[in-house]
């Protein structure tokens, strides 16, 4: 009987040539915009305007990059540093506050737990654009407009992060484990640091990657609050490169290529943790 059941159990089968062909086609289509950006970033003005356009990278990358970093009205190096400061600060803060709040909503019992969680979820339905005016007024009253603090402060915690961590902790960590730590005399913060954090590292990796990428690519709010400053973020600096009566596309895409490199490196370093976190969340 057991042998018969084992023989009927589903087995992992290797993918067919059709599945590999489909995945390869999806990969090529997804990667082509990045490749095309690199091609333009390495080309001259004549190659950019040629018809049909060239799909082979040129040899003008260093010249285009020197023009981007050497422009007097666009401080591209400072903008990259600002984006890195903002993205790191927001990511670290989001991981800490969202995991702590998710632990509280998932494992602690207090009055208003479900109501507060409902309010957090409800904020996800409100578009960010609706709060821009009020946020700008608030930052102005604090005297932060035109400073990086105005970009960092609104992103210190996110409703999505709280909800995501709450769901992961509720399903991944049994209540008995928390109660056992409490019986051993551990306080709430110690339980969070020694029990919860080690168990949710894959989820932290997923949330950290998503938060860093979203913060690095944020354009609307940095454009509003840093308008007129000499040291904006990288996305605002790219918009400055693309402004004017005549747009030098090789210069713009060279800057875009440089701004994309940190995200690609981050994905290569944390891609395995990203897949692991998604799979563990699905299995839980």
Automatic annotation (TrEMBL):
TM region(s), chain numbering = 20-41, 74-103, 115-138, 144-164, 191-216, 248-269
Give the signal peptide range.
Answer: none
**GO BP field:** transmembrane transport
Membrane association type: Multi-pass membrane protein
- Read off the InterPro entries from this record: MetI-like (IPR000515), MetI-like_sf (IPR035906)
- The answer to whether UniProt assigns keyword Transmembrane helix to this entry is yes
Source organism superkingdom: Bacteria
Alphabetic keyword roster? Cell membrane, Membrane, Transmembrane, Transmembrane helix, Transport
Q: Where is the ABC transmembrane type-1 domain?
A: 80-270
Give the primary localization class. membrane
Q: Where in the cell is it found?
A: Cell membrane
Return the GO cellular component terms, semicolon-separated.
Answer: plasma membrane
Q: Which SUPFAM superfamilies does the record match to this protein? A: MetI-like
The family assignment reads: Belongs to the binding-protein-dependent transport system permease family.
**PANTHER family noted in UniProt:** ABC TRANSPORTER PERMEASE PROTEIN MG189-RELATED, ABC TRANSPORTER PERMEASE PROTEIN MG189-RELATED-RELATED
Q: What is this protein called?
A: Carbohydrate ABC transporter membrane protein 2, CUT1 family
Which source organism? Actinoplanes derwentensis
From the broadest rank down, the organism's phylogenetic lineage runs: Bacteria, Bacillati, Actinomycetota, Actinomycetes, Micromonosporales
